């Protein structure tokens, strides 16, 4: 049995290695830290997400003022007298790092004492601009949290040029007064403290000499004590955090970098002690950048499509970006611990997606092991002889950014190429069907597989038996489905096969227009075959339902399944049978029609374009379609190259993959009445099953 429907058509558019042990600081600001050579560089934030740093540097000092000062990321800016005569102050700062250097000493009867505390509070401010989604019949809640990795690097302290000296005899010209005894001593503590790593050093040292007779010390030598140079570095660490935007657009995370210096030295008239110390630290964030962690697939973000060839390939970028202010990080040590993966897992025959992660400057890049060459390629590469076996292998997934533990994820959607034919072997066969006026017999079985949309729609919607793909011999665009029945004897059915035509494809450019029906009381003049005056008759509504995508397949199938039930249950029969009365030759018994709101005298008693047996199939098909309303969430056909954002204001209907790109609504229902287009019906009494009178 052929299935016709009115159609609507639109024009188709085109669519590394670990950081090694550092050498201790020797002298001078220029060699203070590895940070010293790094230039200020501001990060370019990903789209839809901005990350800014708000900070200043607090300095608290007491005692003597040493030489040296503060170096924002190695660029000397402030001396220790930055607070002038005050004991504390806040300094202008823009970087997420700091360095410091101090030289101190005491001698010739002078004692030196200094305490310095440096605090760099870091306030990382995240700003997100979520999209505004106002879609009739559909709700979507964008991801409102962001995971990130906070890390510190180059946390270290070191000392250089430590010396304690004492001399009783003349060693300069002109010689100073001789001393019977001389001594010096020095002490220091230096530390850098962060929430993830700490570095500290401390030492005390001294020197002394004596000649016994200050008047006769010409032959007395000197004593020099030069201890080893202690250092502690370079430490690093990371920890994952999460912020929530809740109902706002901003979120904040705060950290501190802190340094403490205690410097002491003293010496008698003929002695001196002192040295240099320095240290520093850098901090930053690592945020997933691809796929975008705040991307919204519902409006076209983070969507990926398998290729249409054999083997089929899918590439999903998987990357993270390092954010630092004023210094350039080495992220190789983090890369070694980083994994990118997809959950639920995507099948892949000869590649290992996310086998390792490498660092390229500020970026962490996932790499896949290429099975054929044994080399590595960027991003997550999936390659298989055929597409994944089940419709559930496509759709909503997450790309997880993991460093020991999960840091964050990005929501993605994976689609298959609609009209390509690289799905797995098996599934329903395909046939070339005769023209509409020919007998209901296939011409021959198609040599190529059925298209992907048919295979995956069939898989998603229950894998019904005796359902086949068909191409119509004359390419008539008005046929969507066909049911071919074989009688055993009389009205007894031997077999029934259902054919779904290629015009059901989301890429065909046609939308299914379902006629809808209601019960209305009407008066009919007496007819020669039956006196029917006034009764509740099935009546064509002035409202229609437009469906597409997987609902086009479901509507076609349910329509033909309704015919199948009517044949099997004996409601419908196109054979002469003495037990049946069928005056209008529509295949429906007159007595059955009277009980179910149809006029027994007219082949098309409801609609001049539709036989009565088609009307009841539409009614039951519509009822079953309502039960499958949520099946649109399982449609992962791509957009077939149609206008992905539906920018044509005259195009009210969306063809192609109903969730791909940025549709005005991924929900594939349009009730149309006059100029009203809505996702819900105007009438509340539309028939969803065949009415039956008592």
- How many beta-strand elements? 34
* DSSP summary: helix tally: 5
End-to-end distance, in Å?
Answer: 30 Å
Shape: elongated
The main sheet comes to: 11 strands, antiparallel
SS strand fraction:
35-45%
Strand-pairing-aware structural class = mainly beta
Quaternary organisation of the protein chains = single chain
Mean pLDDT rating: 85
Mind telling me the C-alpha Rg?
41 Å
Helix coverage percent of residues?
under 10%
Poorly predicted spans:
1-46, 647-654
Short description:
The protein is mainly beta.
What key phrases describe this protein's structure?
single chain, 694 residues, mainly beta, 5 helices, 8% helix, disordered N terminus
What does this structure look like?
8% of the residues lie in helices and 43% in strands. The chain has helices at residues 332-335, 452-460, 550-568, 590-595, 612-627; strands at 2-4, 7-9, 49-63, 67-71, 78-79, 88-92, 97-107, 111-128, 145-167, 181-193, 198-210, 222-225, 231-244, 250-267, 271-290, 303-305, 312-316, 319-323, 338-343, 351-360, 363-370, 376-378, 380-384, 395-403, 405-415, 430-433, 444-445, 467-472, 479-489, 492-501, 510-523, 534-547, 669-673, 676-678. Strands 4, 5, 7, 9, 12, 13, 15, 18, 20, 21 and 22 form an eleven-stranded antiparallel sheet that branches. Strands 1-29-30-28-26-27 form a six-stranded mixed sheet, with helices on one face. Mean pLDDT is 85; it is low at 1-46 and 647-654.
């Amino acid at each position: 049995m052929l299935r016709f429907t009115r159609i609507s058509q639109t024009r188709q558019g085109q669519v590394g290695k670990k950081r090694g042990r550092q050498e201790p600081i020797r002298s001078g600001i220029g060699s203070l830290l590895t940070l010293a050579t790094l230039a200020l560089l501001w990060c370019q934030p990903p789209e839809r997400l901005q990350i800014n740093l708000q900070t200043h540097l607090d300095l608290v000092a007491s005692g003597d003022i040493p030489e040296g000062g503060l170096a924002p990321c190695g660029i000397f800016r402030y001396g220790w007298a930055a607070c002038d005569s005050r004991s504390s102050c806040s300094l202008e700062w823009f970087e997420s790092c700091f360095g410091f250097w101090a030289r101190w000493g005491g001698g010739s009867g002078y004692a030196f004492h200094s305490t310095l505390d440096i605090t760099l509070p870091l306030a990382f401010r995240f700003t997100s601009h979520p999209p505004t989604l106002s879609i009739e019949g559909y709700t979507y809640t964008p991801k409102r949290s962001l995971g990130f990795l906070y890390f510190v690097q180059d946390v270290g302290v070191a000392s250089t040029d430590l010396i304690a000296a004492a001399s009783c005899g003349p060693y300069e010209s002109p010689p100073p007064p001789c001393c019977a005894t001389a001594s010096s001593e020095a002490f220091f503590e230096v530390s850098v403290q962060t929430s993830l790593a700490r570095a500290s050093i401390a030492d005390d040292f001294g020197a002394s000499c004596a000649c016994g007779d200050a008047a006769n010390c010409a032959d007395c030598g000197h004593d020099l004590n030069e201890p080893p140079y202690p250092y502690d570095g370079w430490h690093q660490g990371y920890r994952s955090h999460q912020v929530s935007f809740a109902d706002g657009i901003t979120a904040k995370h705060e950290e501190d970098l802190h340094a403490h210096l205690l410097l002491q030295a003293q010496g008698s008239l003929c002695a001196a002690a002192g040295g240099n110390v320095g240290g520093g630290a850098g901090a930053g964030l690592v945020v997933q950048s691809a796929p975008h962690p705040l991307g919204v697939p519902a409006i076209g973000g983070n969507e990926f499509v398998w290729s249409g060839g054999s083997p089929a390939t899918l590439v999903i970028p998987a990357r993270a970006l390092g954010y630092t202010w004023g210094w350039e990080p080495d992220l190789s040590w983090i890369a070694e611990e980083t994994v990118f993966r997809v959950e639920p897992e995507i099948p892949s025959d000869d590649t290992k997606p996310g086998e390792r992660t490498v660092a390229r400057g500020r970026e962490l890049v996932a790499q896949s092991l290429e099975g054929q060459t044994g080399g590595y390629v960027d991003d997550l590469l999936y390659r298989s002889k055929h597409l994944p076996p089940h419709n559930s292998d496509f759709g909503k997934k997450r790309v997880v950014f993991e460093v020991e533990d999960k840091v964050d994820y990005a929501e993605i959607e994976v689609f298959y190429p609609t009209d390509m034919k690289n799905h797995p072997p098996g599934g329903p066969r395909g046939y070339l069907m005769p023209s509409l006026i020919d007998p209901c017999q296939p011409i021959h079985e198609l040599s190529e597989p059925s298209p992907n949309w048919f295979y995956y729609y069939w898989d998603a919607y229950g894998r019904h038996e005796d359902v086949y793909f068909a191409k119509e011999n004359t390419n008539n665009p008005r046929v969507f489905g066909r049911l071919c029945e074989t009688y055993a004897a009389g009205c007894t059915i031997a077999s029934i096969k259902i054919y779904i035509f290629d015009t059901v494809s989301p890429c065909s450019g046609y939308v299914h227009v379902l006629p809808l029906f209601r019960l209305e009381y009407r008066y009919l003049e007496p007819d020669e075959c039956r006196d029917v005056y006034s009764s509740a008759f099935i009546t064509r509504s002035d409202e229609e339902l437009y469906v597409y995508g997987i609902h086009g397949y479901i509507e076609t199938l349910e329509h033909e399944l309704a015919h199948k039930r009517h044949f099997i249950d004996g409601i419908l029969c196109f054979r002469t049978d003495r037990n049946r009365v069928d005056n209008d030759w529509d295949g429906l018994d007159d007595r059955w029609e009277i009980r179910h709101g149809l006029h027994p005298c007219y082949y098309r008693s409801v609609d001049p374009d539709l036989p009565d047996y088609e009307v009841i199939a539409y009614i039951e098909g519509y009822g079953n379609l309502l039960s499958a309303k949520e099946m649109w969430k399982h449609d992962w056909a791509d957009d077939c190259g149609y206008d992905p954002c539906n920018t044509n204001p005259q195009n009210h209907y969306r063809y192609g993959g109903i969730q791909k790109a940025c549709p005005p609504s991924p929900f594939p229902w349009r009730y149309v009445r006059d100029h009203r287009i809505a996702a819900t019906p105007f009438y509340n009494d539309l028939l969803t099953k065949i009415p039956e009178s008592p």
